[in-house]
Structures
1.
Amino acid sequence: MTPHEFDQLVEWAYARIPARFRKRLENVAVVVEPEPSPRQLAEAGVGPGGTLLGLYQGRPLTSRSVFESFTMPDRITIFQGPHERLARSEAHLRQMVEDTVWHEVAHYFGMDERRVRAAERRRMRRGSS
């Protein structure tokens, strides 16, 4: 898949986030990179042989104050290479990208990894009904 096609896939996944959440996403840059850097892997706690599909870097909404001055945008990075290597089909790739975007947006809203994983399990159960 070309980088442009993957960018479009990420845009599609972002658009699938319900409007009530998208409206609250402020000062967030969503970017695509080919691969995570060694620094990004370390920041996410990924050990040797592990991989990273996405990364949220910023200050979660739940820990912000209305009295804060201007800050640089938070950043959600989606990594193309790991998605393509793990995907079993085009449909699986679409689902993985959608899940990764949701996952990183949940971190923006202040959910820690345990809560994000629990929310993902609930979302999957609803989606398969």
Note: The chain has a mean pLDDT of 87.
2.
Amino acid sequence: MSLNQTKIVSNAKKYFETATKNGFMNDELMSFLGEAFLGAPASNMLDYHNAFDGGLIDFLLNVANYAIRINNSLPEDEKVNQSSLLKVCLLHGIGKAFLYKPCTSNWHRENLGKMYEFNDELVAMRVSERSVYYALSHGITFTEEEYSAIIFLDKGDDKMAEYYNSMLGELLKMGNTLAIQNSRKIKQPKTTI
């Protein structure tokens, strides 16, 4: 899959309008993320998800869509604040804005589906940590619950993250999982049994 330029621009507009309206985007962070963010993929391999130009914003919007839909289906006393949910869904992956660069090897692209390489100039940290770092460094603040929801997302091996996540964190995790699964849908041949 790939996105045309019109869809990339439309997604970016929706992303920034939603984030600004809900109070977790400012000019400083928007300027920092810049053009790199608009064209960033969400992963580097075609076997993964959203490994195409504009894939990151497309993915983040899908995560938010799923998480909001799940939250809206909950009983009133279990729902989380929608603005807070949008915040963690749309900011949890901004750490990928500069993570990938185009793969220059045609062989790797054609035979392995490796569309992007990792940017070795970045200091090693998890995407969630880098996302929070970028946001905090550019004037965005988090509640403890928002912070932990993002940080716990890629700590699947951490028992604290597994057993003590908040409802906000669980909604982020479910939205993330569903967005990945939806992007991997492969049409199965019909069977006649």
Note: Residues 55-73 form the longest helix (19 residues).
3.
Amino acid sequence: MLFDSHVELLLEGAVSFVNELTDGERRGKPFVAPSGEDLLVAAAAAIPERAQAPKPKKLPVESAEQLARAARVMRGVFEAMQEGRVDDAAEAVNSLLRETGARPQLDRAPGETWQVHFHGSDDTYGVGWTAGCATALALAVGSELAGRLGVCTAPHCDRVYVDASRNSVRQFCSAPCQSRVKAAAFRARHRPE
């Protein structure tokens, strides 16, 4: 494990929000971010399964819109890191931290152990997840693990990932994208002249 489990969960959330709530390309096809009622469901579905709180079926409009706005900023963080523009990534993360008022504090649910959270207990779902994801991105960008934030290098895919591989060699957002690239390379090598 490169990051502690809580930061790992928040980075997983950042990846999921960016990949599910921003326009672009996915696995060779255009991807249009959900809007309206679909956004409420997609934003809730983007919350990592292993998050402790029970996952809602859909989020309130305010929280879903907050996460969609934050996802666009977080996408910029991943893209800046991919391109070696660390200062731009840091500025984007800092804007999210300021916007959400992210601050560390210990919280505990009944029957649970104390955990560090980066939002207040009365913050909305959207602000809470944005604050946590922004803090996790700050911890990544501000460390020797900054190069672990990436954008898929497969053609016609711009989904993001956090490279948790031992030797930091990941280039693709998913196994299907890696397979597409390998299959295309195989076909190119075996194409008759």
Note: Strands lie at 24-26, 29-31, 105-107, 115-117, 149-151, 160-162.
